[in-house]
Specification:
The protein is an all-alpha fold. A two-stranded antiparallel sheet has the order 1-2. It starts with a helix and ends in a 9-residue tail after the last helix. It is 71% helix and 2% strand. It is a multi-pass membrane protein. Keywords: Membrane, Mitochondrion, Mitochondrion inner membrane, Repeat, Transmembrane, Transport. It is found in: Mitochondrion inner membrane. Its main location: mitochondrion.
Length: 287
């Protein structure tokens, strides 16, 4: 019995990793052009630092050659099981997941940012971009972690709460019957996209200054005039604030970030929910 339980748990973990990986891949692919524009704005690339969103987009792009109407009633005990995880638990679940993910993938994020930031060919490939060793690749990791914990926590929490409220109060507009999903209902794809989009916007508003700090530190060594951003999180935050203030410094690029974050989180959570349903992950992990 113990062996069977362990096999079930391992199967659940592997399926969860697959679901999350596919969701992340789809969401990042969907917003890749917007992501590059955000990096150029955040790091004040000399070619684009005086341009707005529309002009940057026009400049960057050429460089980069029917559901059933039947609804099932849901009793209070089912909703109690759906909402049984505490608010703190939801926040911590998202924060732990986000922190773990960023720790494992941060060097690749640094490489991606360096490649996206360059306009002329500074780096010729992934290996060349990885100069500076682990210390260079993990530059900006502390502000990333400080930003990722509230971002991942609040995005997960907001999505789960919006999903719960939609399924509980307006299922006739947001849900479709499901024999496999907890409570007998599953959100429609448009509803998943809306819940994920709003969750992403809320979370990004809270964590954005740390994202700007991370980008400045990641790209500090690419130009002589940006070396001053490579000496620690607090110093980088203070320098950004003194030179550019809040809206043009710590929140620079927020407009494009909303355009990017809402579809990215919407696609991520929507694909993840679809993968969960496909892989029968709604039963949960038994310990």
């Amino acid at each position: 019995m113990a062996g069977q339980e362990q096999n079930k748990n391992m199967d659940f973990i592997l399926k969860s990793l697959l679901a999350g990986g596919v969701a992340g891949m789809c969401s990042k692919t969907a917003v890749a052009p917007l992501d590059r524009i955000k990096i150029l704005l955040q790091a004040h690339n000399n070619h684009y630092k005086h341009l707005g969103l529309v002009r940057i987009y026009s400049a960057v792009v050429p460089i980069n050659k029917s559901h059933s109407k039947k609804r099932q009633s849901i009793n209070s005990s089912k909703w109690n099981s759906l909402g049984s995880q505490s608010h703190i638990g939801k926040l911590l679940s998202g924060a732990c997941a986000g922190g773990t993910a960023v720790a494992l993938t941060y060097p690749l994020d640094t490489i991606r940012a360096r490649l996206a930031f360059q306009v002329t060919e500074t780096y010729t490939g992934i290996v060349h971009t990885a100069e500076g060793g682990l210390r260079g690749l993990y530059r900006g990791f502390v502000p990333t972690l400080c930003g990722m914990i509230p971002y991942a926590g609040f995005s997960f929490y907001c999505f789960e709460m919006l999903k719960l409220l939609s399924m509980k109060y307006i299922p006739q507009f947001t849900c479709t019957p499901s024999s496999r999903n907890t409570g007998g209902l599953a959100l429609t794809i448009p509803s998943k996209l809306l819940c994920g989009g709003f969750a992403g916007a809320i979370a990004q508003s809270i964590a954005y200054p740390m994202d700007v700090t991370r980008r400045r530190m990641q790209l500090a060594m690419m130009m002589p005039e940006t070396h001053k951003f490579g000496f620690g999180m607090i110093q980088t935050l203070v320098t950004i604030y003194k030179e550019n203030g809040i809206f043009h410094g710590l929140y620079r690029g927020m407009s494009i970030n909303y355009l990017r974050a809402m579809p990215m989180v919407a696609v991520s959570f929507s694909v993840y929910e679809l993968m969960k349903q496909t892989l029968d992950l709604d039963t949960g992990l038994k310990l």
